[in-house]
Amino acid sequence: MVKNAINRQICKYSIIRFQPFAETQEFANIGVVLFAIGSRRLEFRLLDSRQHKRITNFFYPLDTDVFGYTVKIVKAEIERIKRFYDLDGRINADLYAELTRGREDIIRFSESRVLFCDDPIAKVEELFEHYIQHSFAKDPSYEENMKKQVKELLAKHNLSELYKTDVIGDADRYKATFPFVRKSDRRKAIKPIHFLHNDATAMIDHGREGLSKVELLC
Prior knowledge:
By secondary structure, this protein is α+β, with helices and mostly antiparallel strands.
């Protein structure tokens, strides 16, 4: 434990964002770059240029080649900067700041954030899984956490007694259980649902599952 504390160092990191349409200001997280100040190491992880389905579906009708080409350019640029360190250790905070500075381009970088870590490579993988692969949403209890938040919100506004877990529908037709059903009107219900999925197909399937229940009950 003492050894880990000794090895810990301050790091700056930034989320790499793909923003093909400046007019809408919409973006998708596609990677992470991290600079370890003490060891002057620069580490990064990007989506593979072939992993374009989720991104290009979101930015339809964007040409898939645009995303692939952009990822390759960004990867080449960061690897070029890393070679400075491999040759003579010239990577410093100024070089990292120049890489991540704000610019009007198809690739944007989030504002730098600071953390402590003892393994920059492992930390980059962890950040990538969180911000790009949405590891937090893969937990089966994610929607349970959403239910807990809704429950707390109802309690805060003194509505807990009005919404209870109940079954809506008819036994001889179709029925479904909802976590929050208004006691005075069983046509009103709250069903927390998340759309944080790795691709558009999974997101649509999950949404349609919830919508089909409502359609069958109408």
